């Protein structure tokens, strides 16, 4: 698996400038995870995002204006939990200076949080205000951790949750090596959203969260090797 991931990472830098090892390929997996968990949260937890905080800020405005199908409480909870996860990663980065070790530690913790969300769904379902609040908190905290560690690693064009600048770069810049990474990032997010929605609407949210947990666990183990 390690060799395959390294080859995939090298293809994301066709100009031969990859200095991140297999991490670029692992970030593509995390982008798929973002699409999956946002599909679960939007479709099953009251129209809220756990990865896309821009959307939650907008939803908060809509909810306060009186939109009946949106929850200001859920939007605030998602943003607050996301901030908590990012804060925790910042504190961990003060103790773990090696970026590879930080990625492993944070992704392992993220795996645990999504696994906990899966356990909640399996035992109590995903309906009811308190259950939904717990799921939003767990998933958004994990995504805050993911976003913070990705920001610290700073692999160009692979942000895992934000695509606005990615799309802008595709349109604004001439074709080149960054175009490959941007297209892959878009495809990964789309794939995650499509698969997450299909699993959530079909077998149910547990199936989608199982897929997200498996991808995070795979990224954790692969980063160790």
Topology at a glance:
Blueprint (H helix, E strand, L loop, with lengths): L1 H10 L11 H22 L8 H13 L6 H24 L3 H26 L4 H25 L10 H9 L4 H25 L3 H20 L1
Helix pairs in contact: 1-2, 2-6, 2-8, 2-9, 3-4, 4-6, 5-6, 5-9, 7-8, 8-9
Report on the structure:
The protein is an all-alpha fold and 225 residues long. The protein has helices at 2-11, 23-44, 53-65, 72-95, 99-124, 129-153, 164-172, 177-201, 205-224. α3 runs antiparallel to α4 (72-95). The model has no long low-confidence stretch (mean pLDDT 93). The chain crosses the membrane at residues 21-50, 102-125, 131-150, 183-201, 207-224.
Please report which band the strand proportion falls in: under 5%, 5-15%, 15-25%, 25-35%, 35-45% or over 45%.
under 5%
Q: Structural class, judged by helices and strands?
A: mainly alpha
Which consecutive residue ranges, at least 5 long each, have pLDDT under 50? Answer: none
Helix content range of the residues, please? over 70%
User: Mean of the pLDDT scores?
Assistant: 93
Inertia-based shape: globular
Protein name: YoaK family protein
InterPro entries: DUF1275
Transmembrane segments: 21-50, 102-125, 131-150, 183-201, 207-224
Keywords: Membrane, Transmembrane, Transmembrane helix
